[in-house]
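Archive entry. Fields below.
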Amino acid sequence: MTATTSPPVETPPGREDRPARPSLWRAFLRPVPLAAAGIVLISVLAALFAPQITALSGNDPFSYDPDALGADTAPLGAFGGVSAEHWFGVEPSTGRDLFSLVVYGARVSLLVGLASTLLATFIGVVLGVIAGAVGGAVEKLVDFATDVTLGFPFLVFAIALSALFPPEAPRALLLTLVIGMFGWPTIARVVAAETRVVVSQPYVTASRVMGARFGHLFRHQVLPNVASTAIVYSCISLPGRIAAEATLSFLGVGMQPPTPSWGRSIGDAINWLLVDPAFLLFPAAALFLVTFAFNILGDTLRDALDPRGGAA
Amino acid sequence: MSDGDELLTLAGLHVEIGERTIVSGLDLSVQAGRITALVGESGSGKSISAMSTIGLQPPGARVAGSARLRGDELVGRSAGDLRRIRARRVGTVFQEPGRSLSPVMTVSAVFRDVLAVREDLRGRERVRERTAELLAAVGLPDPGRTAGSYPHELSGGELQRVIIALALAGDPELLIADEPTTALDVTVQRGILELLRRIVAEREVGVLLITHDMGVVGEIADTVVVLKDGAVREAGTLRQVLTDPQDTYTRELLTAVPRLEESVAARAQIVPPEVPEGAPPAVRVEGLSVEYRRRGASHRALDDVSLEIAPGHIHGLVGESGSGKSTWGKAIAGLVPVTAGTVELDGVDPSARGRAERRRTYARLGMVFQDPASSLNPRRTIGWSIAEPLHLAGHAPRGGTEARVREALELVQLPGSYASRLPHELSGGQRQRVSIARALIHGPSLLIADEPTSALDVTIQAHVIDVLREAIAGAELACLFISHDLAVVGSLADHVTVLRQGRVVEQGPTARVLGDPRQEYTRNLLASVPDPERRLHEDDPAPA
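PREDICTED_STRUCTURE:
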C-alpha cells in the first residue's frame, strides 16, 4: 500500500447527481391492477354519489314497490324482475330496487372496511413497534394480548355484543370498533418482527450510542422502515374486513334494516335461492369484485414496495 | 502447460442475464492434479462462470461458448445429463460452511443421501465405513463423533472439512471451490488450504478455486486467471502473474493486498503524536469482564482485560471470531452490561453518572460497523444520516448543519452532492466512508471501528483505510480499531492488543507485538496470514 495508490474508481449504481427512482405508479400501469383500480374507483364513486346514481335509475333503496312483486311476493319477470325500471331487479318480499341496494351497500362496506382497517393498523403498528423495540416484559405483554385476541372466538363475541347493544346505537361505528379491535394482532405481529430486525441494525445501534431517545428511534429509524410493511399488510387485510362486515350483516347481527348492506342482501337472497337464484347474483358479485380488486391492489403494492423487485 | 491432462477447458464462455452480459469470453483450463484460481472482486462474474459450466446458472441466464470436461461438451447439455455429470464427476465446496448443510440433518444422514446418489452405495454398514473413510481423509480426527453430529455442533473449520469430504464422495475428477476459506479464521484457513493441496496431490483431482484473496491464490494456486467485469484481464502461471503482472488491474489488486511486514515497517516510521502531560486518556478500561447469561448458563466473553488509548492514538484489537473483540467495543460504548471493571471516557465513568450526563458522555463516541449494507438507515438520505449526531446533540443551528455535512463528506473524499442520495444509490465502499463521516462529524474523542473494511473488496479496502487514517490524523482523536486482519491493523495502529477467548494474549506497540511477538499464539496467528509470495520464496532455491 503506497501513498500513490489512486482512489479506485467506484461506480455507484446509478447516474450522476440523482439517479431516477423507479416510480411506484409504474407498477400499477398494467392491465390487471388497472382493472382492479377501476373497480375500486367505481365502488368508491358509487358510495360517494349513491343518491345521485340511484336517482338516475329513478329509484331509491327505501321505497317499497309491491307492483313489482307477484302473488307469492316473488318478483315478476325473469332474473328477479330485471327491467328498464329496476336494472338489477327487485328484492323479494319487499320489492325494493336491488340496483339502489347494491349502490348504497357500497357505502357501508367501504366505510366499515376502511375505518376498521385504519383502527387495526394504528393499534397494530403502535403495539408492534413498542413490543419489538422495547422488548422484555412489554414484549411479553403484547405477545400475550395478541395470543388472547387471536384465540378469542370473534364471531361469537361479535354476535353477543350486537345483541347487547340497543338497536338505536350507531351500527356502523359498532361494527368498525368490533372488526378493528379484533384485526390488530396480525399487523402487530408482523410489525413487531420487522421492528426487532430494524432495532438490531447497526444504524440504530449507532443512533443509540450517539444518545438517541426512544422517540427519535421510533420516528426516524423504526417507523420509516416498517411503514411499507404496515401499509401493505393493511391493504391486504382490507378485503377481509369488508367481508367480515358482510358476514356479520349476513348473520343478522351487522347492519340492521332498512340500511342497505351487501351482506344482508346476500342473507335475504339465500332464503329465496330455491325460488330464483338471481337475487344472490348482484350483491354477491359486488362483494366479490370489490374484495378481489382490493386484494389485487394490495399484492401489487407489496410487489412494488419490495426493494428486490424495485430494481427496474 | 499443454500436457495431455486437460481436465476442464472453457473456451469463450459467455453468460448473459436479460440484456446484461455477465461474463464475456472466458478462457480457462484446469489440469488434473493442479489448482487453477479464478480471481476477481465482487461482481466480477467469477462464481457465475463456475456455476454456469456445470449447468447451475441462475434462471433466465443464457450460456454460450464451450466448456469441456475431459472432452465432453457441457454447454447445451440437457438438465438430466448435467445432473449425472455433477453427481459423478464434479464436487463443489461453497463459502459459508454453516449454510451448506441442512441444520436438521446429522452429518451421517447427509452422507447416506449423497453416497446413494454419487456412489450407488446402500447398506448401513458399507455407508458407515465409507463415511468414516472420507471424513478421515479430510483430516477429521474422530470420524464417528463428526458423523453423529448436527451442523451446529461442529466448528466452522470442521464443517468445511465435512463439506470437502462430501465433495470428494464419488471420487470426482473436478472440484469447484467457491471462496472455501473466506468465512473462516486465518488459523483455520491455513489448515483447509493445506488440506486442499494434499487432496490435489493425492487424488489427482483438478481444482477450480474461486477467490478474491490474492493471499489464498499465492498459497495454493498453480495457474491464475484474473477476472474483472466478466472479462479476463490476465492469465498465466502463479509465478508469472505474481512477479511480472502485465495488466494494470492485476498490479492494482496485488498492491492493494496489505502486507504485514511492509505495513509494520512503514508504520514504525510514523511517530504517534505527543501525549500532553496530565491529560486523561480518551478511554481507559481496567479489569473489564463481560458475562453473557443464557438459560442459566453463563459465558465469559471478556475476562479481566485492560487498555488505555491516548488522544491521537490508534489501538488495534486483534483476534479470531469468538475472541470477544466486538464485545469489548460494545462494552466501551455501553451497549452491553459490564460484569466487573471500569470504563472511563475522557476520565469520566459514564456508568457512575446520571442519565443525562451518561448520554452526553457516550455521545463523545463515534462508531463504524462492518456491514456497509446495514450501517445507514435505508429510508433516510446520506445527509440526514451524517447530520444525525448533530440533531441528537441538540445544538444544530439550521444553516450550519448543511455546511458541516458537506465538510464531513469532503473529509471522506465524497462530493457534497451525495448528501441528497439514499444509501442504496452508493457502493459499499462509499457507504463505509459515509459511516466514517457520520462518526466524525460531531468531533468525538473516541472512534470505535468494528471491522470497518472486512466486507469490502481489497482495492476498496485500501482506499477506505487511507481515508480513515487521514481523518483520524486530522481530527486528533483516539481510535479503537477492531479487526481480524493482522495486516490491516499493522498498517494502521500504534498499539495492538491480541485477544483470545476473552483474554489478552499480548499487548504493546505494534512494531513490537507484530514484529517480534513474545507469545506462541501471536506467532501462530502471524504465520497463518496468507502471503501471495511465500511459496515463491520457498520455491526459489529449487524451482519446481
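CURATOR_NOTE: Confidence is low (pLDDT under 50) at residues 1-20, 308-312 of chain A.
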